[in-house]
Amino acid sequence: MDIKAFKMDGLGNDFVIIDNRKTITNLTKEQIVKICDRKFIGCDQLILIKKNDTSDASLEFYNSDGGMSGACGNGTRCIADLLAKEVNKKEIILTTLSGNLKSNIIGEKIVSTEIGVAKTKWNEIPLSKELNTNDLGIKINDKNDNKFSGGTAVNVGNPHVVFFVNNNENFEIEKIGPEIENHSLFPEKCNVTLATVVNKELIKVRVWERGAGLTKACGTAACATAFAAKQNELVYEKVDIEFSTGKLTISIDEKNSIHMKGPVSDIEEINFKI
Q1: Which of 2, 73, 103, 248 could cross-link with 80 by S-S, CB 3.0 to 4.6 Å?
Q2: Handedness of CA 32, 266, 208, 40 (dihedral sign)
Q3: Between 27 and 70, where is the model more confident?
Q4: From CA 76, how far away is CA 103, in angstroms rounded?
Q5: Are 114 and 108 in contact (CB under 8 A)?
Q6: Which among 204, 209, 253, 194 has a CA at the least distance from the CA of 227?
């Protein structure tokens, strides 16, 4: 099968994008895994653009393990930029499993997306049992085997748990990430963030993404971290979330809705056989 697609990224969080609005490309789970494999094409997520009569388009997100994801913040921003150039608009509405998401093109390759209001009830995350989602009491160890207990659970279209630690470089996220992702407390698995609050306007993060592993950046993790930090009075309503590849600016408005702003890459057209 010959496939025409696009490649884009947000802070290195990269995507293969297939436009299914005119020509339908049906992929098996095995084919999605192969496309995401960095020995073949390679990406964190595969995104399908589908026709929608009430919005600019519908999006389906697939992680590199072939499983579907309900939301992808950086992916949504990339598609908004792609479609905005196509139709010459500054505002794009995209339909996802998490609802309709509005994005605004606010500069050259700078896109802001409203993610919506985070869910924090235990059965909305979801958790396997009722717990205080602001402090799950999950124990993790740093590289010196010092024990830490915590974890704030937030759902921003997909489940996240955020650990606020003094220095996230002291923790092996490659070990902690998969352990927490597959913890019995999370029936749908979860994304894992180790966050270090530098000040009330800056948080440094490292992210293990559900179904994708260690990632250079994750938009929904940035949103979840900012919301969890604000909930714990650690930051202001507007905060920069810093990854190794750059920053996303997260704002929480008076309605508690989360807005994410940051850069997107150039659009690369690719062709391959599968």
Answers
A1: 103
A2: positive
A3: 27
A4: 8
A5: no
A6: 253
Please check the confidence at residue 50 and state whether its pLDDT lies above 90.
yes
Q: Which residue type does 202 have?
A: L
Farthest CA pair distance, the chain: 55
pLDDT at 98: 87
Q: Beta strands 57-63 and 91-96: pairing type?
A: parallel
pTM score above 0.70: yes
The average pLDDT across 122-148 equals 97
> Is the Cβ–Cβ distance between 5 and 17 less than 8 Å?
yes
pLDDT digits (tens, 9 = 90+) for 52-100: 999 999 999 999 999 999 899 999 999 999 999 999 999 999 999 989 9
Flag whether pLDDT at 7 surpasses 90: yes
For residue 194, give the amino acid letter: L
Q: How far is Cα 117 from Cα 101, in angstroms, rounded to an integer?
A: 11
CA distance 45 to 17: 9
Which residues does the annotation mark as catalytic?
A: 72, 218
What domains can be seen in the chain, in order of their start residue? 2-116+262-273 (3.10.310.10), 138-255 (3.10.310.10)
